[in-house]
Amino acid sequence: MSTTDTQRQTAPDAPTPAKRKPPAPFWVAVGRYARVAPASIALVVIVLVTSILTSTMWMPATIGGDSLVWAAGVTSTIQAGFWWTPFTALFVPEDPAQLIVVVILALTLFAASERLIGTLRAVIAFLVTGVVGITIGVLGQWAAASIGEIWATSTEFDFTLDPTIGIIGALITASAFASALWRRRIRLLTFAVVMMFVLYNGDQNNVYRLIAALLGLALGTILRPGSMKRIRRSSHAETRNLVAALIAITAFGPLVALLPPGGLGPFSFISALFEHQQVATQTVLDQCDKNFTANCRLDLALVSVDGVGPLLLSFLPLVLLIVTAIGLRRGRRFALILGIVVNVAMIVLPFTALPGGNLTIDANDIKDLAPAIELLFWVLAAFVVPVASIVLLLITRRQFQIRAPRAAIVRFAIIIVSAFVILAVAYLIAGLASLTEFVPDATIGDVFASTLRRFVPSGFESITGTVIVPTVPFVSILYQWVGPVFWAVFVLATLQLYRATATGRTVGDELHFRELLKRGGGGTLGFMGTWPGNVYWFSEDRDAAVAYRVINGIAITLSDPVCSPERAERTIAEFVSFCDANSWVPVFYSVHGEYLPVFDALGWQYMSVGEETLMHPQTFDMAGKPWQKVRQAHNRGIKENISTLWTTWDDLPPILATQITAMSEQWVSEKELPEMGFTLGALAELKDPDVALYLALDPDGGLQAITSWLPSYRDGKVVGYTIDFMRRGDASIPGIMEFIIASAALRMQGEGVEVLSLSGAPLATKPVSDGAPPADPTTMDRLLGFLGRTLEPAYGFASLFKFKSKFNPTYETIYMAYPDPVALPAIGSAIGKAYLPDAHAREYLALARTLMK
Known about the structure:
Oligomer: single chain
């Protein structure tokens, strides 16, 4: 949808406006923000004023300056008796950098808290969690310092000026009032970031933030009881995103340990791997070349990691974790393996970082032993994050099943091996050609060991043999850069591998299948054959196609064969022969009644698997009593000024795309049951450019409801649409779905669309016509009825069918045809796997609990 603005022409002598006014929507947005988040704006103003009064706007606060009167800490709050500092520390920034962070967080996170719980409660949460959190932190720090605890003793004379403590506490408090989806996101990611700073950096401000966050969790539970009772399940995409975010956060942990004050947390020991000491390279080389002493080994080790190349190589584990997170977000199996390997390496790194690979404790008495033991625990704590990451990846491994095709894996292997061989051989030849130009003089074995060392981070120096340093400029360049260049190739090749997907079908196959769909065939459900998970069989002349998937030896087709009506029998027979050649059991699923004579001729059996509800836009009319409910809902939508938008995903404004994603994730997060697929589309299927979206919007542009429509064709022209995706917002008006479907029917009426399908209703039986005697139920009818009643509490198939009946549709039974009744148990298992491809034992238990309620 596009709009064209009228061009306004200005006369040549027209005066130029002195000042261009901001557009009206800008001021509307500012006014709306000010009404929603007045406390956030007030906090920013207060912080700006206090930063000017205390001079922290342009210089850091110092212990000896005037800022000590406002700062919290053991020295100020307890020893100096400044009892008010836990309160005042929440309104004064410590330095210019923190001022910028506070302004950003206040206008975003604190504003979000206001939006969730209101201004008054947000202010209370800010003050309670901030003041109490700082007070508890100071008292705990003072008590721990009195008994000689290392962290408390080392930070005893620090002070805190940090408004972000209250902001974090308010955010966690407000999360209790967020939807299940956003509550999980806010808490998980906030605690992950806060814990990363506590464990790696160890600044007392970070500890106070953690205490405030925990207080916010408790306060939120008090304000909204029940918000901690159960953990809601995530969609597959949401789980992947959260796991990827957590892995990415662990990658930044060691870098956080390098920030001021630097390395006071339990995990900060690992930061030693990424620190590079300054060294006089030429002086060391000259001295050690003349007289190789015991100190030369350590000095040459420092020289070997000096320079830009080794510095980049030292950050390799962190870069690979970021690359892992990118792949995990895409569900890639290779990223899962890479993440486990990198974290295993991170477990080894602390040992290699120790001088000589050993850790010794020198303690003369029991007083010295306690801090030494605590330090030992800090060193051992470095294993916690990589071990926890490995456990997380193993637990969620089912979410990362997307494998690259064999050709892509071979190409990746060739690139990596070739790059390694070329770079290693280049350095090896150059090194062997200049054996006497190393410090100390090198042997052939030393050069080979040095070649391997060029490709590993500097943290592994202690386990890779004697360090030799070249003095020839060309060899020195290779010495520094072959490793970074190789790993740059590895990262780029890995990102390329992530884009290769083993779908079992080529892009050309999918394009040709779509071409056949547009010619005609496939029925009203045929477009579902384009969805991921399906592969294609084509006839020899490529004029017919079948979309199918193979699960445990069962080849399940989806909808009618895609071909002209006159060649349907031949197409089905050829596909059956194709399955027989591959030892598969063919099953035609969701086929329409017109194909049953073909299966009768084959001697197959078939059964009803649902009813498709059809509307006919060209005769659509909401007059009369049968249409009363739909008519009332449609009229209400018009009265409420609900507007509609017919579009595609690519043409959506970004704000609407975001609202659709949030609405879908919210819907999934509130369900404990496994997410279904196969003939039920999800968010990913909306993004197909051939799929139409029909949105209902309130007068303010907010999303009320969304539906997606799959096209069906004849001779390249759309002659029908099938509804697939339906979601409504929590704040939508009653009857919004009736409104949007009726509006869609009226729109299609004007476009000449012949058929509007409300899609199939699984396990449903069409109602008996008035005056017609009810048919005697068969065993299969009774079984379907039992399954429908049993699954109703979980998936609401009967309720959905009842909703569709409001539109007075015609009904068409859809069938499953199969060759052998003996195979029914295997067929049922395969179809269940098709609908629930990623379900595991916990989800099946949740389903069982739901069915027994």
